[in-house]
Amino acid sequence: MGERRVCSVSFRRDAESSERGARLALRGLRVAAKRGLWGVGRMLELFDATKTYTQGRRTVSAVRGVSLRVNTGEFVTIMGPSGSGKSTLMHLMGALDTPSSGRAVFQGQDLQAMSDRQRSILRRDRIGFVFQAFNLLPTLTAAENVALPLLLGRGGRRAALARAAECLDKVGLAHRAEHFPDELSGGEMQRVAVARALVADPDAVLCDEPTGNLDTANSRDILTLLSKLPEPGKRAVVMVTHDPAGATYGTRLVKIRDGLVEADEAVRR
What we know:
By secondary structure, the chain is an alpha/beta fold. It has helices spanning 17-35, 86-93, 116-126, 142-151, 157-170, 186-198, 216-227, 244-247; strands at residues 42-55, 58-71, 75-79, 101-106, 109-110, 127-131, 204-208, 236-241, 252-257, 260-266.
C-alpha cells in the first residue's frame, strides 16, 4: 500500500458574524427546549409537508401532505418500499431539504425560516447523520473522521480528537482509532459513522438505511447500538429502512407508501 497523505483541517480564528448569530439562535433553541417553552419533548415535526420534484416533463410527488411528530427519547423507524418517499421524509426532518409546501420544524423553529447558513450549522452541531454508504474520507484515520464535524467548527484539534476517542470507545472501536477506512470491516466503518454522528452530542440522530451494506451479524450489532442512543428529554433517533426485522429495534414504527403515512404505531416487543 502506498504512502498515505494525511489531510490537515484548518479553521478560522474568529467565526464570521453571521455564523455567530446562527450559533446564538440555535443555542437559544436548545435552552428553550430544556425549559419546555413549546411543548414537552417535541424534537422534529412535519405539518402537512409535501415535496415535489421535476424530472423532465414529469412532476414527481415524493411526499404528499405528511404530518408527523418525533419526541425526545423515541426511536422512530420509517419503513416503506423503494420509492415510497421515506428518505425524502428524513431529509425534510434533518434540514437536508425543505418542503415544497407545509412546514418542517426542529425544536420549535421552522426550518424554512432559517438561512442556509443556519441550517448548515444546525446539521453540523445538533443533528447526527448515519448513511448506508458510511461516507468516510479515505485519507483520514477513524479518529479524524469522527472528529471532522468539530474540526469544521470552532474547536481545537486536540479537544476534537479527545472527544472522537470518547465516541469511538462508546461504539467499541477505541483500539481502531488510528486505522484508515480501508483497514476496517464494513461493520467497523459503520460504527465509525455512528461515532461521528455522536461527536457533537446532537439532539437528534437520523439514519438512512444504516444496515443496507452489512451482513446479518453486523446489522444486528449496529441496530442494537442505535437502540441505545435515544435519551428521554434529550435525544431522538429516526431510522429509515425497508427491513421489517430492523424496525423491531425501534419504539415506534411509521409505515409510508406513495408519499403518505399508511400507519403509525408503537412497536410491540
